[in-house]
Amino acid sequence: MQTLNKVFHLQDAHTTVKQELIAALTTFVSLSYILFVNPNILSASGIPKGAAFTVTAIATAIGCFIMGLVANYPVALAPTLGSAAFFAYNVCVGMHVNWQTGLAAVLVASVLFILITVLKLREKVVDAIPKDLKFAISAGIGLFIAFIGLQNGKLIVDNKSSLVGLGSFANHDVWITLFGLVLTVILMSARVPGSIFVGMIITAIFGMVIGQIPMPHGVISTAPSIAPTFGQAVFHLKDINTVQLFMVVLTFLLVTFFDTAGTLIGMTQQAGLVDENGKIPRIGKAFVSDSLAMVEGSILGTAPLGTSVESSAGIAMGGKTGLTAIFVGIFFLIAMIFSPLLSVIPTTVTAPALIIVGVLMAGNLKHINWGDFEIAFPAFLTVVGMPLTYSISDGLALGMIAYPITMVAAKKYKEVSPMMYVLFVIFIIFFLITNMG
């Protein structure tokens, strides 16, 4: 106990081991859906689902250990659905990049992430982006994730005349998704802890009861091997040799930038870690922690890790120190033995989780200054561009290009940072390279 107090400063934070353990369990239950959703998303890229399950558990555990020990924050680091969706649907499926090369791009972005963090460039670049666009990026990713969930759940399908349309209620998958969505919405509205996880479990049982989801062959087994993915990022570094892939690296870097920085700031504010001057203690160590987590995740074989918004559930239960993150990591390691349950968690079961997470991320829309057109227009392009182009990078580029144009036209060019003009040029080049085919 004294050792734990010395390492995590429990007394100074006015917390106890029991309180941190309860907080960690709450965070784990809220975040555990990532064990099933992340493999489902990554499998679209060709990554074996079993290996992705184990990698998700190990990478999350290591990320939590790093955050807990280095920064002493009650924050969990896990693969983010936005980055996973970009990796699988945009890079691998959309650009026809094999997943091994995609992981190499993530590794390069991760190393660059560490470099700019150590050089303190990360804070400078983040500060250069107007806060309205940061909120728009997060909200846009949320809409994109929700759109993928609606597709996976067969609620939204292809339509020749209008591109998309409502799915058929004759499809059993639609009823499974609707059941899970309504149930999860009720649980979320009732403030039930772990609503997303509980909703997934009950929805899977519902699917088995109506005979649309096969019964699992077991509950506990040895975790699937990570051999298919481990080290592939390193082995395929030589493949990062085209301008297109360099732009992929840049996009991973930018998307992770905004996602993790915004979430981390929000979590530290909720945990009461921000001082009276608005400064966040050990924020540099926290940035280093998630940078290191990105590296280990890419080497193991998953999309970039980032600060988990589900950490807010544990913080709400009293989590105040890195011991919470350590306990979360331990829970994820224990969870590896439950891999047989993957067979009963198809995309129709995880679809409601994607939709709900999209709703939560869309909450950032309220922070955008819609009253000033020169800000509202690029923010709007960013938000709607991601789901409508089915590309996070395209939506990001649209907003980054529009912002300097509208601000200059409004004679507010002095409010635009030099970095924004640099990004303006970079994203124009990005469009010319990726959309000239």
From TrEMBL:
Top-level taxon: Bacteria
Lipid metabolism listed as a keyword: no
Topology with respect to the bilayer: Multi-pass membrane protein
Residues spanning the membrane: 21-38, 50-70, 103-121, 133-150, 170-189, 196-215, 245-265, 321-338, 344-363, 375-406, 418-436
Signal peptide: none
One Pfam family from the record: Xan_ur_permease
InterPro entries: Azg-like, Azg-like_bact_archaea, NCS2
Cell compartment(s), UniProt: Cell membrane
Principal location listed in the UniProt entry: membrane
UniProt KW keywords: Cell membrane, Membrane, Transmembrane, Transmembrane helix, Transport
Entry-linked PANTHER family: GUANINE_HYPOXANTHINE PERMEASE PBUG (PTHR43337:SF11), XANTHINE/URACIL PERMEASE C887.17-RELATED (PTHR43337)
Family classification: Belongs to the nucleobase:cation symporter-2 (NCS2) (TC 2.A.40) family. Azg-like subfamily.
Protein name according to UniProt: AGZA family xanthine/uracil permease-like MFS transporter
Species of provenance: Lactobacillus colini
